[in-house]
Design brief:
Strand content: 15-25%
Helix content: 25-40%
Strand order of the largest sheet: 1-2-3-4-5
Shape: globular
Distance between the termini: 23 Å
Oligomer: single chain
Number of helices: 4
Number of domains: 1
């Protein structure tokens, strides 16, 4: 298993603009039920290919193959930090008010297994990327 720290901001490929399809929801549920089975992760990558997200698909396949664990900024517009396990956000740390306002986009696109929230509100420089 590899662990890397992500230092750069997320790319647009990690900021979905549409609601996930029933297929994506089904695959996320399969990942939550059996996180060690990579079949659903590879199927999710195939789905990214079918929806024109080839870079995201390749990134997910590589992360699954390498059993990769990454630490870095949350994708999208949230300011928190994330632990990506084999290509998907598995854990997040975020300010509670920010998380409650914008969590739907993350839950739609990532099969979380753990979220940690802080009570103090967001401010400049509180999370270092």
């Amino acid at each position: 298993m590899q662990t890397r720290l992500l230092n750069s901001a997320p790319t647009e490929a990690h900021e979905p603009a549409m609601t996930p399809s029933p297929e994506f929801v089904r695959l996320h549920l399969a990942i939550l039920v059996d996180p060690d089975d990579d079949t659903a992760r590879y199927s999710l990558a195939d789905g990214y290919d079918r929806t024109g997200q080839a870079t995201r698909a390749d990134s997910l396949r590589t992360a699954v193959r390498d059993r990769e664990v990454l630490r870095g900024p949350l994708p999208g517009k949230l300011e928190g930090r994330a632990v990506f396990r084999r290509g998907l956000v598995a854990e997040a740390v975020e300010w509670v008010d920010e998380f409650l306002d914008r969590s739907e986009e993350l839950f739609d696109w990532h099969p979380f297994t753990r979220v940690e929230c802080f009570r103090q509100g967001p401010g400049p420089g509180r999370f270092r990327h």
